[in-house]
Amino acid sequence: MITEDLKDFKRFTPKTLPKEEPLVSGHRACQGCGEVLALRMVAKAIGSPMIAVSATGCMEIISSPYPQTAWAVPWIHVAFENAAAVASGVEAGLKTLMAKGRIPEKKIAVVAFAGDGGTADIGLQSLSGAMERGHDFLYVCLDNEAYMNTGIQRSSATPFGAMTTTSPAGKITAGQTTWKKNLPAIMAAHDVPYVATASPAYYLDLMNKAKKAAMIKGPAYLHVYSPCPTGWRHGTDLAIEVSRLVVETNIFPLFEVIEGKYVVRKNNKPKPVEEYLKQQRRFSHLTPELIQTIQTRVDAEYARLLKMEGMTESTPTKTETKEE
Ligand SMILES: Cc1ncc(C[n+]2csc(CCOP(=O)(O)OP(=O)(O)O)c2C)c(N)n1
Fold it and tell me: Tens of pLDDT along 270-313?
């Protein structure tokens, strides 16, 4: 039971943030990158002992230009498609070493990091397998809504209407023509103990979720919204503002699924989606009609999320997300 796993869980406050930095300065992320900020928060919240498994993607590229590294914890770079499979192997190996008495029995957080391309598209089957087998690990999807490090190509997590190099806006199409794949729902359908969404603008909420997810026995999934000024074409000073607006508009609601029960951070007075869209040039071609189409979809999705919460009869526990 989660309550047992979290009996020693202490919520971070601004005064009790950990000093340890598993991801140190000197990496080579773009100016204003929201993804590396989110990654740092997750790593800091979890701390040592941790083994990080990184799929190919922006965060791997910027943190490990040979012979240097920005990682101060054990870290493995794996292929684009198999972060969850490698994390499964690391976890199984640790279990065996502990069973043989070769290393002391204690919880070592095994954390896989991947982008939305590595998660929603090419790594989905290895992720599904690891979740289904019940490995004790945390999978963190750092969602910058496209294949960024290879030149801003669309993924199945790119939002409707967004312009990328492979979903251009022009006479025939107005950017991405499909709706964003709902990864948290796919993960929740695996009946794992813990699934959550987080945004770096709500840093305490994000760090508390990361800590909880790492402490829980069994598979956990954290979906982290990760602004990309380079690909989204917004100001390099706007990552946090964009991360806040995406939640305030209900485009990216914050919620947890704790042992199948949805707990949603409520926002009954959402801002219009236009406020979020207008800050990013990837959406600059959208007509009022398309913005209305997005608004209708966002309202329907949020209503569906609240319905899920009602259907799963969520009972707030002391681990529940509070206003942070
Ligand atoms: C099998 C395979 N196909 C394609 C690539 C090239 N590739 C490396 S990273 C990447 C995009 C990664 O996108 P995402 O997972 O969204 O992470 P981001 O770079 O946006 O952080 C691609 C296409 C690869 N390394 N391996």
Answer: 999 999 999 999 999 999 999 999 999 999 999 999 999 998 87
When divided into structural domains, the chain yields a total of: 1
Residues flanking ligand 1, CB < 6 Å: 56-59, 80-81, 114-118, 144, 147-150, 155
Q: Which residue of 63, 80, 139 sits with most ligand 1 atoms within 8 Å of its CB, as the best mutation to test the pocket?
A: 80
Whether 282 is covered by a domain: the verdict is yes
pLDDT tens track for 103-122: 999 999 999 999 999 999 99
Among 127, 142, 147, 226, the mutation site with the greatest number of ligand 1 atoms within 8 A of its Cβ is 147
Give whole-number Cα distances, 218 to 53, 103, 133, in Å: 17, 20, 9
Give the distance (Å) from ligand 1 centre to CA of residue 301: 28
In a domain, 324, yes or no: no
Q: What is the pTM of this model?
A: 0.96
Domain holding 138, by residue range, is 2-311
Distance (angstroms) between ligand 1 centre and the Cα of 217 equals: 29
- Residues 39, 195, 223, 76, Cα dihedral to 10°: 50
Question: Which CATH number characterizes residue 162's domain?
Answer: 3.40.50.970
- Sign of the dihedral defined by the CA atoms of residues 150, 152, 155, 158, in that order: positive
Which atom from ligand 1 is nearest to the alpha carbon of 226? 21
> How far is residue 78 CA from its own chain's centroid?
18
